Amino acid sequence: MPIPAPNLYPPFNIIRLSHAVFGVKDLAASRAFYVDTLGLQVTDEDEEHIFLRAMEERGHHSLVLRKDETSEIRSLAFKLFDEGELDKAHDWFKSKGHRVEWVERAYQGRTLRTHDCFGMPIELYFQMDRLPPIHQQYALYNGVKPLRIDHFNCFAQDVDTAVDFYNEMGFRVTEYTEDEETGRLWAAWTHRKGGVHDIAFTNGLGPRLHHTAFWVPTPLNIIDLCDLMATTGYVANIERGPGRHGISNAFFLYILDPDGHRIEIYCSDFQTVDPDLEPIKWDLKDPQRQTLWGAPAPRSWFEHGSIFQDVEPVESDLAATPIIAP
Amino acid sequence: MPIPAPNLYPPFNIIRLSHAVFGVKDLAASRAFYVDTLGLQVTDEDEEHIFLRAMEERGHHSLVLRKDETSEIRSLAFKLFDEGELDKAHDWFKSKGHRVEWVERAYQGRTLRTHDCFGMPIELYFQMDRLPPIHQQYALYNGVKPLRIDHFNCFAQDVDTAVDFYNEMGFRVTEYTEDEETGRLWAAWTHRKGGVHDIAFTNGLGPRLHHTAFWVPTPLNIIDLCDLMATTGYVANIERGPGRHGISNAFFLYILDPDGHRIEIYCSDFQTVDPDLEPIKWDLKDPQRQTLWGAPAPRSWFEHGSIFQDVEPVESDLAATPIIAP
Amino acid sequence: MPIPAPNLYPPFNIIRLSHAVFGVKDLAASRAFYVDTLGLQVTDEDEEHIFLRAMEERGHHSLVLRKDETSEIRSLAFKLFDEGELDKAHDWFKSKGHRVEWVERAYQGRTLRTHDCFGMPIELYFQMDRLPPIHQQYALYNGVKPLRIDHFNCFAQDVDTAVDFYNEMGFRVTEYTEDEETGRLWAAWTHRKGGVHDIAFTNGLGPRLHHTAFWVPTPLNIIDLCDLMATTGYVANIERGPGRHGISNAFFLYILDPDGHRIEIYCSDFQTVDPDLEPIKWDLKDPQRQTLWGAPAPRSWFEHGSIFQDVEPVESDLAATPIIAP
Amino acid sequence: MPIPAPNLYPPFNIIRLSHAVFGVKDLAASRAFYVDTLGLQVTDEDEEHIFLRAMEERGHHSLVLRKDETSEIRSLAFKLFDEGELDKAHDWFKSKGHRVEWVERAYQGRTLRTHDCFGMPIELYFQMDRLPPIHQQYALYNGVKPLRIDHFNCFAQDVDTAVDFYNEMGFRVTEYTEDEETGRLWAAWTHRKGGVHDIAFTNGLGPRLHHTAFWVPTPLNIIDLCDLMATTGYVANIERGPGRHGISNAFFLYILDPDGHRIEIYCSDFQTVDPDLEPIKWDLKDPQRQTLWGAPAPRSWFEHGSIFQDVEPVESDLAATPIIAP
């Protein structure tokens, strides 16, 4: 039985995913993509950084772009319930033998930098500068009208191990794909905030970041984004979709930023706050788990991901590419 | 300062609102409304009851219709985290001197019946029969395509008192209307599950149930419902909307069932899981708090509500009707 | 029988409504409304004029704003099939004893200025400068994403007379409201281009322009416009809607420009190209003819209209205001 | 120069495409597809036929299913302006040496059966039984909520010849694809009723019917249909899309009926009533002409089509498959 029982009393309380820090080679090109095309709002910027938030977020940033020589991911960050939980997190990671470090992060309170079971850099904090609401300043809405960051999806070289580790931290599995032949997990979606996922794992060369997702109002906003990207020089950046996922039931689009970081535009999954919510199991051989409507994902979608800084990814011992519909 | 600090460590853990039990005079008429028109799914029915769930719910029921001589509300129910929390709730209500009673409820585990600060009947449970997912059985989708119950809204004769009481139970205020002249609360929206509200209170003859809301996919489903109701004999049951609320930013429609119970069809509010989320304050004199687009609500919307069984409502000592735009 | 048989072989061939020329007192205020808020595209402008087109139009203009001391309408214009039809139109109006005049109009070929049966100024032309398509330049889409001008609606002091006159010109009635008591027409919708109307007439102090309509992609664009107007200082300019008309079955919103000219945002009527299409009759006492969902229009909607330059409107001998739902 | 000047004064007046007659092997299977899944309305049926109309059509049928041993197309039909035009059509086809025949067709007046330049069977009539409007009986709307038939698309072994022939009949080209190397037409879209096309031609083994299109309200209805088909056993019948066409700018989905007849679900093209509308030219090498967003069509889409009864298709002398994006 591959899915552990949900850990309803975790050692510390993670509220939700919070933000990612992306290395990007050309801040202006990234700004054109994230601000002018997707419609994220700049909350601060200088020669080295752009801080972005989506329309309903009151925290200072949900995406940080950092000018760099390479396009590596610096960290994935999570918000904790309060300062006490942050200290508990520190002690827990330390007790596990993970590297722990208190770091300074602009616009954030005390921040713990550590890593997960694969060395993937994660940062935990409880306090971030709060900004006035802008969700009713409709003149600011632009592009795909992004409302909030929704989830991370990571390649993992061993999804069973990932799920065990994140389950210990209280992430609850909502859906998963099992390889019927080996009985091993192929992919799993785990949440803290009451949606289908805050972070998901899929089998492959890992750890790498597969994508970061933003929630948008309706499928029509995704269609609008396709029209916009197709006619403003970004047609080659549309990688997959739009379509409906089997897993999560969400309406999706996958696009690539100028550095190749994959962004999912996402809406319409379901509420998962019940502690007794039963995970939904999918068979690796069912192509509708990926796209309910049957269209296959392109090969790049299974293979391409973003590297984490200073973390060498490792091959999975399961085959690296799932059955793709012909 | 009218809003109490959020109680982040409440005496017991309510997960979310769960369901309501409505007295209805004519089950067939109610079935035509809720099943054939709105699209709720029947999970059980007999001569005396109809149990209903919405499309993404896995609990057995989110609305129970009970044939009765009168159209009174029997209870509003909430789901607790686990059995331990249910016992804690029992003790807390008892310690407050509230009537507490263990009751049998079909398809539910141990259920506590008690009442709130105004005598409004509430029921708490932790376990309900779980049903297989149907959210991807698209052939079942019908009417407004209701996805899940979203919130209750109640008239309260004293909103300050209501907020204090529910805040003690851990309901966090997300938005509120203050009467600038008296400094008293006119209305407040409070949540457990991470949306704008699980339960809201508005000033008036109370306690009475103002409405019960169901979440739907997009505003277009609400437009579809208007078209359907307008051409199937329900045009007089469309009371207000569709429109955008200022408070909650949600897209809404208010309709009346055959017994006069008000249902809100609702989508597009925002995520509120952050424990440090700042409540948004609205002025009673700002008509956009009700309808962002400026259209006034009809008088019935301020005056009409459903009675709770065996609970005599009491006049508020604030004026009973707010400023209505001309 | 109030509706004349359709005149399938009219004396000249009008293709469609083309454009209106509005007097406006403050070009900058009008520009903020039509360009920045609605999303019409400027095709030319100077100190005295702004020429506008919608996104799928290839003719140079469908709305001309002309700086003026008063907010009067200068003309409503129609496009003819070719030059021969224009000469036939000239002769027909002249033979009727109507004033006819060849006028110079920027970006247009030979233009005939004349008037209808009530003295309402109309202009006819066959050739206008053609512009490159922009309907796939999605970065230009803005506001309500207006696609094309759809129709004019005019107050007429005698709708029977209006319908007879326009029917002679080949406008075909698609829907109409009859006052059952008098057997007279209350309102009528007449078309040339294959939709529900190019021009409609409604009983009242006339001739005056009731509104000019633009077609938009979907009801969601209308919701977006409401959100935008409500939060950018235009909330008082939202007069009626959004909603579904009974007549035309279109989804609508009525807004007022800074001079009080009424604009309808409109989509989803039906195709009417069949010459044997039966007009749909509505009873004046049926409130769903106006709003299928039952919501009444505000009094201003029945009373307010724009004056045509140098044309004194005349009271109708039918009552000036129809039955309004309470 | 491949596009002929529009023939604005054709020998007879075709109003619009009207209907198709499909041979189908299993009426029950076809009924499940067209009625239960797509939502077309049955206007008559017996052991041998099902007559269907879409929601806003008042003519008796826009699709006729005829039980047969083979899945061949019996005819494509067009509606003429009046009886005089029908006689003119008869004489014109006869003068061209085409076979002409007056045939009896249920629910239609006098009907001319003839064929186009490739022998493709076409039928012309001016009168069909008119049915009461149902476009406001919203309880009948189902499936993709089809509003009306929009166009036919045919494989032609020689698109230049097709365009010349249909242009003679007054079909006006709105968009076309030219093979830059040979200067020959690859595909062309031609209309009568004021949209992008009533009939289009694409290079290939011809004549064959590529698809028949129905117009629907919005892209969301197309998404709903995908969800429905994907979960009711029709996932393999979803062939291509949804997406935006470059040509026509329409939002589309291609599906296959149980006999392999291809249906396009279509919305959002543009109005083309101006006689001086300039055709838009696309280069065969531009993949965005097919899908604005860049996704390639599957090979089947270029190769599969429906045979016309008793018409042997002929290979094109241009290559049979265009450049497909990798």
UniProtKB/TrEMBL annotation, chains A, B, C, D:
PROSITE patterns: EXTRADIOL_DIOXYGENAS (PS00082), VOC (PS51819)
GO terms assigned for molecular function: dioxygenase activity; ferrous iron binding
The name this protein goes by in its record: Catechol 2,3-dioxygenase
UniProt keyword Transport, yes or no: no
Cofactor: Fe(2+)
InterPro entries recorded: DHPA_dOase_Mn/Fe, Fosfomycin_Res_Enzymes, Glyas_Bleomycin-R_OHBP_Dase, Glyas_Fos-R_dOase_dom, VOC_core, Xdiol_ring_cleave_dOase_1/2
Keywords per UniProt: Aromatic hydrocarbons catabolism, Dioxygenase, Iron, Metal-binding, Oxidoreductase
Family listed: Belongs to the extradiol ring-cleavage dioxygenase family.
Residues of the VOC domain: 16-127, 148-268
